[in-house]
Design a protein that fits this description.
14 helices, binds NADP nicotinamide-adenine-dinucleotide phosphate, globular, Rossmann fold, single chain, 352 residues, alpha/beta
């Protein structure tokens, strides 16, 4: 690894993924860090923030055209749209706008790291081959990850810089107002169940509770992305990145219930989007009673993401073999991860 000072540009620095990369790199002495997003990150630290709309080409040119020293780009920006086809245009446009401005001026550019996910393998479509390997064939498009990767692969040809991509699943970490953050879904669901005097029930079917599942701690992901962006062997390679263990929700709930001092009961499939929609007033009362941070209920969690997690009745497993063979050997116990992150949510007055 080269220890010369590096300059990271983190796109999507307020997201559940980007925020962790920002936290990680801004704590390291050998990195200068520039964070970009529309909102200002809530992290104190040694970095520069540029408020920017990546969908706006002119905004990118005006605000990023002088970033001559960028050596590494970590791309974790993301927008959701109503369907898979509509996801492509804005997600590709943000990446292209960024690279079109930075790549010609940052003559010392060494690496572009993309964040992808298990959707690369089509877990959102139905059962897929498990454990999924990076070399598995693509699914029938559309999939905006494919368009982003194709753009980067073509752009890289003949250049001095290289790329890598990380493919996490069920990222959990501290971030507020983000659509996909599993720990927030679980913590808020458990808190509301408890206040209503209910046991902590798995909100999916029995088959979903019994399927094998995996998650990725956002700080582990940040370390993995830093590793693949700076390790020469990882040049132009994708890597699955999960905690390295797998679990069944039916075994996880008793551990989570214990943390919240609750009982469990058998799974009962509910539509979280519908059933949790009317719990805003309850959350407001909890906020007042326990002096929690005032976060609008609609921003706290996106229940649709909970339904996405608790609906599939098949295993979701990515192989971590390639990352390990290339040298990323960190593992994390997912049970411990949830409990540690609940502690953080309590300490930050997000949950009582
Ligand atoms: N979260 C997960 O569980 C998970 C799992 C697997 C894969 N992934 C992948 O990881 C990547 C990042 O996801 P995430 O969950 O971290 O997303 P996220 O929490 O929604 O964050 C998205 C980031 O993009 C920024 N952004 C959105 N529109 C922008 C715009 N017009 N201009 C500038 N910045 C913009 C947002 O910042 P502002 O709103 O402040 O502008 C935010 O920082 C995605 O490709 C996602 O598919 C996520």
């Amino acid at each position: 690894m080269n220890n010369a000072k590096k300059t990271a540009l983190i796109a999507g620095a307020t997201g559940v993924v980007g925020r962790s990369i920002l936290q990680h790199l801004s704590d390291l002495d050998d990195w200068e860090v520039i964070a970009i997003s529309r909102r200002r990150p809530d992290i104190a630290g040694n970095y520069q923030h540029i408020e920017i709309d990546l969908l706006d080409k002119d905004d990118c040119r005006d605000k990023l055209g002088n970033l001559l020293n960028v050596s590494h780009i970590f791309y974790a920006a993301y927008v959701e749209r109503a369907n898979l086809r509509e996801m492509i245009e804005p997600n590709l446009r943000m990446l292209v706008n960024l690279i079109d401005v930075i790549e010609p001026v940052a003559t010392g550019l060494r690496h572009i790291n993309l964040i992808q996910g298990t959707k690369w393998y089509g877990n959102h479509l139905g059962p897929f081959k498990t454990p999924a390997k990076e070399s598995d064939p693509l699914h029938m498009p559309p999939n905006f990850y494919y368009d982003q990767q194709e753009f980067i692969v073509n752009r890289q040809k003949g250049k001095n810089w290289t790329w890598s991509s990380g493919r996490p699943h069920g990222v959990s970490g501290f971030a507020i107002g983000n659509p996909m953050n599993l720990v927030m879904i679980v913590a808020v669901y458990a808190t509301i169940s408890k206040v209503l005097g209910l046991p902590l029930r798995h909100p999916g079917s029995r088959a979903n509770a019994q399927a094998l599942y995996q998650v990725t701690d956002s700080s582990l992901l940040a370390r993995a992305c830093t590793w693949m962006a700076t390790e020469e062997k990882c040049a132009n390679e994708p890597f699955n990145i999960t905690n390295g263990d797998i679990f069944r929700w039916e075994n996880m709930w008793p551990i989570l219930a214990d943390y919240f001092n609750m009982k469990t009961a058998q799974p009962q499939k509910i539509n979280l989007t519908q059933m949790m929609a009317d719990k805003g007033t309850l959350w407001e009362q909890l906020t007042k009673k326990h002096g929690l941070q005032k976060i609008p209920y609609e921003k706290l969690v996106r229940w649709e993401y909970g339904d996405f997690v608790f609906t599939p009745e098949f295993d979701i497993i990515s192989s971590m073999t390639k990352a390990r063979q290339f040298g990323f050997i960190e593992v994390m116990d997912s049970e411990e991860m949830f409990l540690r992150q609940f502690d953080e949510l309590r300490a930050r007055k997000i949950i009582p």
